[in-house]
Design goal:
The structure is a homodimer.
Chain A: E1 4-7, H1 9-22, H2 27-42, H3 53-61, E2 72-77, E3 80-84, H4 90-108, E4 110-118, H5 124-128, E5 137-142, E6 164-168, E7 176-180, H6 187-196, E8 205-207, E9 222-224, H7 230-243, E10 268-275, H8 283-298, H9 314-326, E11 328-331, H10 332-345
Parallel strand pairs in A: 3-4
Antiparallel strand pairs in A: 1-11, 2-3, 4-10, 5-6, 5-10, 6-7, 8-9
Helix pairs in contact in A: 1-2, 1-10
Chain lengths: 351, 351
Amino acid sequence: MTDSIRIPARALQSLAEAVLTALDLPATDARCVAELMVKADLFGADGHGIFRLRRYTDRLRAGGVNPRPNITVQRQEGATALVDGDNGMGHLVMRRCADLAMDLAAQFGIGWVGAHHSNHAGAAILYATMPLERDMIGLYMAVGSANHLPPWGGTEMLLSTNPISVAVPSGHNGPVALDMATTVAAYGKIKTAAQRGESIPEGWMIDKTGKPLTDPKRANEGFLLPVGGPKGYGLALIFGLLAGTLNGAAFGKDVIDFNADASSVTNTGQTIVAISPRMFGDVEHFKSAVDDIFDTMKSSPLLPGFNEIRLPGERAYASLKERTDNGVPIPQALVRDLNALAAECGVAPLP
Amino acid sequence: MTDSIRIPARALQSLAEAVLTALDLPATDARCVAELMVKADLFGADGHGIFRLRRYTDRLRAGGVNPRPNITVQRQEGATALVDGDNGMGHLVMRRCADLAMDLAAQFGIGWVGAHHSNHAGAAILYATMPLERDMIGLYMAVGSANHLPPWGGTEMLLSTNPISVAVPSGHNGPVALDMATTVAAYGKIKTAAQRGESIPEGWMIDKTGKPLTDPKRANEGFLLPVGGPKGYGLALIFGLLAGTLNGAAFGKDVIDFNADASSVTNTGQTIVAISPRMFGDVEHFKSAVDDIFDTMKSSPLLPGFNEIRLPGERAYASLKERTDNGVPIPQALVRDLNALAAECGVAPLP
């Protein structure tokens, strides 16, 4: 990141908001998407942050995404709901689903809300952590926006990196917030390595004969490996059924590669679940028990070669604090492209 | 398995039921536990089937498990419930929780039921598949009954193999039923290799200096590796928080090794979730869509070295059918021990 410069989150947000408004999003929607995009950068999920603005722009311009969706609750029964995203930006659909899931959880102890006709929504951790706003546990699953993974033992890319994120509130420690793709490496890491001219480690990808693929420029000759072999494949499949098929969203052959195709409706599926610890006992007691588990894990003696135990989400929350204070490191090339995008849209460049 | 003989499931069930009745379980409870134990064998989860009867007997005799629990719904609000297992056999507690989760899901679309003061309940797939009885999706998480896993980068065994199982109904194909430990290998496989005098592959365990441990007789000098490194650790931790801490059950330092300690109350935690696809659309349409995904995965061209694509649960359901027809293969040594146990309890041996 030696060629990066630090840019305040507020400046990135303003640019994204202005660009999205120029692309016909209503002002409040543009602000919501911009905030969530930049929050991904703050969390350290660079591959899901402001970097994606160019692609979102392409898809909005090409008619692949509806800038003014009528997001509706299509079905709501008991503690579950199904939301029709009307092909709007995924961030908007998921913000709506998270709010509904929390409302349901406040009433029923749990809220399970699925969406169809959503779109790429960025980092999973953004949504799993929303229920923390109300001292609830959050769980998010999604069908990824391009297939890079065959079923275990196969060569046809029928699965995406279908991620899961789960966030659990705690007391004095930060939340525990797992966010993981079901592949060994996210596809963004392959693209980054290719841009930098670096090779990738064995174990990330294989070619169509099963041999390790370590040249990321040859990525389209192979595919990602699932985490833990058949187990990761199983998780990707299950999350796809729960976040895609159950919601009437695309999964399997129906998934459109949103990086290759700017104009088709993706019918992306995502699911968010909120769980209220209040239903199981005293919330402060629960958060304190999570703190104890956090501290217990940290206190383990270390293996040679390690200098600390990390809890899931610890790095993301440390990044959130550090980047909020010091700005988000943005590569020079991305700064140039964001300013070009601003110029195209007739809005102010980065300061 | 050359030294195994095939024994009909009914004969194994009768023996387990008689032994458990002799150990003071009420007749209907003994039957329920026996059926679930043998169903684990039928599913091919030999390490969780009739093989465990000796250990359950030890713990019942030593007062570590309550043969006549008063299993109660301690809290029930909306779609969630917390069950006090009263230290009964885990199978009974989870059967009760699964029934309640389905009742809640019928009413609210989803039911999330956690338990504390439960015990080892055998194979996760037994419980995740229960909601299939009512065309529902099932999800089961548990805190394992002994810690074999340190946090990633550590050496203190603070985590168990905390499994997850998810089962999704389908139409003409079998259900999709994932059942996985969050470690590369289940601990039972290590014990089996040690008994057979075999070595274990690199990647299953490491010693306290981080070196591969391949001699299973030295298992107590090392620990299991999580699936996918830090990701498996993250999953084990999250499932522990959701199935243990949230339910007021043991997790972390509090977990008692039920193989080493026969008399202490384990306060085992498990959670079962039922989700009704009815709330999201037509059930038959959903099951047919799951069939399509199943068929699509199976149809992928194969990597060299593979002769088929398997769906999660496919092997378990094939085993269920084959072993129901032909009997369960039981090693001779286990047959002898089961008959010795029967003699100790004054009940009939295997026929």
